[in-house]
Amino acid sequence: MDTVRLTMAQALVRYLIAQRVELESGQVSALFPGVFAIFGHGNVTALGEALHAAGDDLPTWRGQHEGTMAMAAVAFARARRRRQVMVATSSIGPGALQMVTAAGIAMANRLPVLLLAGDTFISRIPEPVLQQAETFTDPTITVNDAFRPVVRYWDRITHPAQVLATMPQAVATLLDPADCGPVFLGLPQDVQAVAYDYPQRFFARRVHRIRRPVPDAAEVAAAAEVIAIAHRPLLIAGGGVRYSGAEVALESFATTHRIPVAETVAGKGCLGWDDDLQVGPLGVTGSTSANLMAGEADVVIAVGTRLADFTTGSWSVFGDDALSLVSVNTCRFDAAKHLGFPVVGDAAVGLEALSAVLALAGYRGPEEWADRGRAETALWNQTVNEVTTAAATTPTGLPSYAQVIGVVNRLVEDQDYLVAAAGGLPGELNKTW
C-alpha cells in the first residue's frame, strides 16, 4: 500500500482540500472553500503550519473574534444552500468556548460548519496549559466537551490514525440532508504534530453529491388522501425548499393544485412575492394575510420546515381544531411532529410524488379559497406600501424600521443579499421586505 508520512494536522488539511462537491448548477467546486482562524495556544504550531503550507488550496482568513468568525461560517452555509462548508479554528480554552454559541446556532438551524479547536496535551506532561479549565474529578474533560450537546458529530483526535475514520464521518454528517449540522473536532497539541504513514488513497479527490431521498410510496399515498379532501389547503414553504433547490417544484405544485403558499423566515422568497398564490410570511413576525389563511386552513402541507414556535405562533395560528398536517421533510424527526402525516424525503422529490398522485385524483383546491388568499394578500401589500413609504408619519418624526426597509427595498437589485441584526428588525424585514 502506498503511504505518505505526514503530521496529523497536515493529513487533516490535505483531506479537506481533496473534498469536492457538485453544486446545483452541476459545477464541481471545493467542499471546504476556506478557513476562518484565530491562532494561539493549541492550534498555531501544527495546524497553523499545515494551513500556511496549503496556501490558496485552502485559503485562511484571520478572524477578529472566535464567535463571530464561526457565525460567519454558519451564515455562509445558509447562503450556499448547505452545499459548501467553511471551517473555523480557535485556540484552547476561552477561544474555543467563544465558538459554542455559533455551534448552537448551526445546530438549531440545521446548518453545516466544521469547528476545529486546539486541545490539551494527551501526554498531560505540560499540564496545566495556558487557560486550561481543570476538572478536579476527571482530567479527560476540557472546555471542548461543552460542544457535545450542540453538534451533530463530536470527536477528540487522540491518535493520528483516527483521522482516517473520523473525517469521512464528519463529511457525511455535514452533507446529510436529514442530519446536517455542525461538526466539532478537538485537536490536542501534541497529537497534531505526530507523524504517521497515511494511505495515499485517503487523499484522492472525492466529488460528493447531495442525496435526494425518495419518499415511501405508501407515505405519499396516505398524505395525498388527506390533501385530496381539503377544502382550505395551505402550503408552508420552509428552508428545506431552498436547500433542496425545490422552488420550481413548489411553484408547479401550488399552481397545478391551486394551493396558497405561506412562507417561513428560512423559506422566504421560495415563491415570488407577487405570485398569485403567495400569501406572505407566517407566524409571530408574519403577515395578516398568511395568518388569516392559516387560521382557517383545514389541511396544512409543511415542506422543509421544523415548525418552530415563531412560524406557528406557538401553534396558535391554526384555528381549525380538525386540522390535518402533512409534513414533507428529509428529517424523520421533523416529519413526525404534531401528529402529522409524514412524507420523509427530499422536498422537490416529495412534492413531485405528491403532485403525481393528486393529479391522478384530479385534485385542485377550490378557486374561491385561492381568491380569498389573493384578496387578503392584496390588503396586506397595501398596508406594507403605506407603512414603508417615506411619507408615513411617526410619533417622533424619525424614520421607522419599516420606512428604512422600504428605502433599501426600492434600491436593491434582484441578486442582492440583506443581512439583519437581532431585535425587532428581523421581524420587520420578514413582514415588509
How would you portray this structure in words?
- With 433 residues, the chain is of the alpha/beta class.
- It is built from 17 helices and 17 strands.
- Strands 5-4-6-7-9-8 form a 6-stranded parallel β-sheet.
- A hairpin with a 5-residue loop joins strand 2 and strand 3.
- It is globular, with a radius of gyration of 24 Å.
- The model has no long low-confidence stretch (mean pLDDT 95).
Secondary-structure map with pairings?
Layout: E1 3-7, H1 8-18, E2 19-22, E3 28-30, E4 35-37, H2 47-54, E5 60-62, H3 66-79, E6 87-90, H4 94-97, H5 100-108, E7 114-119, E8 153-156, H6 162-175, E9 183-188, H7 189-192, E10 195-199, E11 206-208, H8 217-228, E12 233-237, H9 239-244, H10 247-257, E13 261-263, E14 278-281, H11 288-296, E15 299-303, H12 309-312, E16 324-329, H13 332-335, E17 341-344, H14 347-360, H15 367-388, H16 401-411, H17 425-432
Parallel strand pairs: 2-11, 4-5, 4-6, 6-7, 7-9, 8-9, 12-13, 12-15, 13-14, 15-16, 16-17
Antiparallel strand pairs: 1-10, 2-3
Helix pairs in contact: 1-2, 3-5, 8-14, 10-14, 11-15, 15-16, 16-17
